[in-house]
TrEMBL record:
Residue stretches making up the Pvc16 N-terminal domain: 31-194
Name listed for the protein in its UniProt record: Pvc16 N-terminal domain-containing protein
Pfam families for the chain: Pvc16_N (PF14065)
Organism expressing this protein natively: Segetibacter aerophilus
């Protein structure tokens, strides 16, 4: 589910940026959004050449509001399946502008900022994605994705980039709510207790 959600958002954002063509590439800016770490395990910086938005999952968070604590799933015919409660996750996604290209009047840094603008424009334009309109979400069992911006303090930003092992790049962070994980392997059925019979005599 995590992979499908991130891949879906990457594709949607890719289509938006390519259509708008903010760098006036006239079709040359293909697939500018890349799902990747900023640095690899050897601390080497993202090594593609060109203009990109690097999309990175930086945190996951369990959504506990409304969480059921009952380890059972009731079927329409009044049978119970032993099943742990659903796990609902929120994803924190960072979008960082990256460019090593100087073309026309813009520096590489300016080009990265222009691409980053498009991320903000896109999620302002559309921040809810439901299975009703996107079959790929329906097929994955994802009811809805809701995207909202997140603001970090300078201290939090410093810790985040230090954890990633990279120097700061212009970036924005969004929270994606929420994914519901429910394993479909069903345990043996447990019949409902409808009646208690006892031989104990109450005086």
């Amino acid at each position: 589910m995590i992979h499908i959600s991130l891949s879906f958002l990457r594709l949607a954002l890719n289509n938006f940026i390519t259509l708008k063509d903010p760098l006036n590439m006239v079709g040359a800016l293909a697939n500018p959004v890349v799902l990747s770490n900023i640095v690899d395990q050897e601390n080497h910086l993202f090594n593609k050449t060109g203009d990109f938005v690097v999309m990175t999952l930086v945190n996951t968070e369990e959504e506990t509001v409304g969480k059921s604590q009952l380890p059972y799933l009731k079927t329409p015919d009044d049978k119970l399946h032993v099943q742990n409660p659903d796990i609902k996750l929120n994803l924190y996604i960072q979008f960082a502008g990256f460019s090593d290209t100087t073309s026309g009047p813009q520096s590489a840094y300016e080009r990265a900022l222009i691409l980053l603008d498009q991320v903000v424009f896109f999620f302002q334009y559309r921040n809810v994605f439901s299975k009703k309109h996107y079959p790929v979400l329906m097929a994955a069992g994802i009811e809805k994705l809701i995207i909202e911006p997140i603001s970090l303090t300078f201290e939090q930003l410093n810790h985040l980039w230090a954890t990633m092992g990279a120097k700061y790049l212009p970036s924005v962070i969004y929270k994606c709510r929420m994914l519901t994980f429910r394993e479909t392997v069903v345990s043996p059925e447990t019949p409902l207790i409808k009646e208690l019979i006892t031989d104990e005599v109450v005086n």
